[in-house]
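Comment thread on ticket #2218

A.B. wrote:
> Attaching the input chain for the structure job we discussed in standup.
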Amino acid sequence: RRFGPSLLRLAAGVIVLWFLVRQLGAAPFEDGLRAVTWQAVLAAVTLTVLTTVCSAWRWRVVARALGADINLPGATGAYYRSLFLNSVLPGGILGDVHRAVAHGRRAGDVAQGVRAVAWERLCGQVVQAAVTAVVLLTLASPVRPALPYVLAGIAGVAGCAVLVVRIGARRGQSRSARTARAIAADLRRGLLVTGVWPQVTLASLLVVAGHTATFVIAARVAGCTAPLGELIALLMVVQIAAGIPLSIGGWGPREGIAAWAFAAAGLGAANGFTVATLYSVLMLAAVAPGA
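C.D. wrote:
> Ran it. Output below, let me know if you need it in another format.
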């Protein structure tokens, strides 16, 4: 029972990769490996230094807003370690779990450490989703016609979540009520305080820009000649898929969505697989200091 969900997530990543290799063969994967250059690795390492420092800054701001503290050098080192673990372990989130528990133990409150990391990651995903929506509404992409319906669905889910939290916070001393009150308190007294959310938003925007630039470099090195605007729109979709915790060390949904997005844009599924493979290799090299 304990390992069932983890095994299902691992199986999902394996199935995606198996399907890609079955449909496209191993050649796109091999092309991605052969396309690696030292210039691309150097660029990825440099950009990852910047994005990791920004991510650590975001984590520090969130942790301090929730009553914990961590210095920026310590946060940066811990973030590098979590990125490395996410890149080499199944699921893509075990590094964040380790970072949360380790910080919580050092601070004397594991629950607080877990909350800080969870909110930090959620804030980053929300900002990335918002940037993706703006980019896809502005630039041509294969998902643009369906985007209004997707945004309406997300808005509906978010509205329901807010309603559930507000109602749950008023209902006695049950575990769900205590959880709802904790969420409301974190938002009201921490994340939505003036001086907190602007820093979190700015840090998240810089992280998204850095990851997108790395992806663009991977696409160009892999030989993709699509216009920059179209390429950015596709890569934003791929980045959202990379956050799905159904991967094997980051591999799986990212490559699947890249193949689909590039095929839908007329650029070829194999090219999408090659770009995603090259990006994965560059990022593994870039987060190697976390070892």
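A.B. wrote:
> Thanks. Noting for the ticket: The radius of gyration is 20 Å.
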